[in-house]
Amino acid sequence: MAKPLTAAAVRKLRPSNVRREIPDGACPGLHLIVQPTGTKSWALRYRRPDKRPAKLVLGSVYDVDVVDCEEPPVIGGHLTLAGARRIVAELRHQLAQGRDPAAAHFAQRDLARSAREQHAKHTFEIAARDFIEEYAAKKTRRWKEQARLLGLLPKDLSLIANGLAYRWAKRPIIEIDGNDIFSVIDETRRSGAPGLARRSQGPTESRARAMLSVLSMMFSWLAQQRRVSMNPCTEVHRPGTPKPRDRVLSDAEIIKFWYACESEQISFSAPLKLLLITGCRLNEVAGMRLSELSDDLSTWVIPGIRTKNGLPHTVPIPQLATDILRDALPRTARNDFAFSTTGYSPVSGWSKVKGRLDRHMKVPDWRLHDLRRTAATAMAELGIAPHIVEAALNHVSGAKAGVAGTYNRAQYSAEKKDALRQWAEHLVALVYSERDNVVTLSMRGR
C-alpha cells in the first residue's frame, strides 16, 4: 500500500541513478516522477474509457511547504502537492463521465496553439510581410519602396529599426482604426516615415500620400483575404495632390545642363545626357541592360517590367545617343548593367549628382524629370505630331488613351525614329554651336 505523500517529503526526496516514480497513497493515480538530474514532475496514471493504460504529465513540482497556491492549478504549470491532487480530482471526475482527460487536454492545447498562430497571423508585422510577399512584390513595380514605408527591409523583409512594422509588430490588424492611420500619415507629413531618413526638411505631402496609398492597398488586400472586415484608410482624408509641374528647360539652360554633365564621371554623364536625348525616365536609363540593346546600339527595348505603365517600350536610338553609348559602355558596363559602379546594381546616388549639377548650372527650380518634359516640348515645337511624341516617350494619354488606345495598336516605329533624330540633331546644333561657334559639329558625345 502506497503511503500518502507530504510536501516535506516531496521537497526532501533526492534523485538516484535511475528514474523514479512514487505513487501518492492519498490520491489514486497521482505519481511523483524524479529524474536522475533532480527534475521533479507530477503525472496521472489511469485507464482510458476503453481500458487502455495512459499517462498524462501534469506539470513540474513546486516543492514548497504550503497547502495551496493563490492561483488555481493548471496542467503544465508549477504545481504543489495540493495543486496536483486538485487537478487529479477534476480529471478523475472526467473519467467517471466516460471522457479521456488526456485527449481532452491535448485537444484544448491544440486549439489554444491554433488560436495563438491565428493571432500572430493577424498582427501588423505578419500581415505587412504577407502583403509584400504575396501581393505587392508580384503586382507592383514600387514594392521595395512600399516595403520600406511599412517598416520592412526589401532584402529579407526583416524589421527596420523604429519603422512602422517594428512599432506595430504585435498590434492586431483588426484593432487598427482610422485614428491610427491618420496619426501615421500626419507624422509622415511632418517628420517623415517612421524609421526612414527624411527626404526634405519641411512638411512633405507626397510622402504622406505614399504612406496612405500603401496602407490602403495593404488593408484592401487584407479585406479581400477576409483577414479584416474593412479598410480603415477609407476614413482618412487623402493629402493634397501637388500642382502638376510645367517646368521646361530653356535653350540656355539646356546648354548649361550639357556642360555640367561633362564635369561628371562618365558613369553619370552618359545616362544624364541620354535622359535628355531619349526623354526616358531616370530609372529606365539608369537601369539600362546590355541585353536590352541591339548589337549596333541603334535600338533599345525596355521590358514592361521596367516601365511605369507596364508596357514594353522600343526606343530608336539616334546617332548622338549611339555615339555616347559607344564611348561609355567599355568603361561603365559591368555584368549586364550598362551603367554600374558595383557590378550588381545600376548606378545610383542621383540626389548627390543633382546637387553637383545645381552648383555648376546655377539654374533655379528644376528637376531631372523636367528633362523628359523638355524633350517632349521640344519635339512638339519641331513640328512632331502629339501622338508621335507620346509614342516616342511611351506615354499613354490623349490619342492613345481609353477606347482609342484599345483599338489603335500602331507602334509608329518609323515616326518615333524620325522624331528622336530631329530632336537629337536640334540638340547638337544647340549645344555644340554654342561651344564652338559653328552650326554643326561632330555628332560624337563628349
Q: Rough shape?
A: elongated
Q: Which strands sit side by side, in order, in the main sheet?
A: 1-2-3-4-5
Tell how many strands the DSSP assignment holds. Answer: 7
**CATH C-level of the largest domain:** Mainly Alpha
Question: Which runs of at least 5 residues are low in confidence (pLDDT < 50)?
Answer: 65-69, 398-409, 437-446
Q: Provide the number of structural domains.
A: 3
Main sheet specs = 5 strands, mixed
Q: What is the share of helical residues? A: 40-55%
How many helix segments? 17
Radius of gyration: 36 Å
- Bin the strand percentage: 5-15%
Structure description:
With 446 residues, the chain is α+β, with helices and mostly antiparallel strands. The protein folds into three domains: 7-107, Integrase, DNA-binding domain (Double Stranded RNA Binding Domain), CATH 3.30.160.390; 124-235, DNA polymerase, domain 1; 251-436, Intergrase catalytic core (hpI Integrase, Chain A, Orthogonal Bundle), CATH 1.10.443.10. The protein contains 17 helices and seven strands. The protein has helices spanning 7-12, 81-96, 101-121, 124-139, 143-150, 164-167, 178-191, 205-224, 251-261, 266-278, 282-286, 319-332, 350-361, 370-381, 386-392, 402-407, 413-436, and strands at 20-23, 30-34, 40-47, 53-61, 77-79, 299-302, 313-316. It has a five-stranded mixed beta sheet with strand order 1-2-3-4-5. A hairpin with a 5-residue loop joins strand 3 and strand 4. Helix 7 packs antiparallel against helix 8 and helix 15 packs across helix 17 (413-436). The model is unreliable at 65-69, 398-409 and 437-446 (pLDDT under 50).
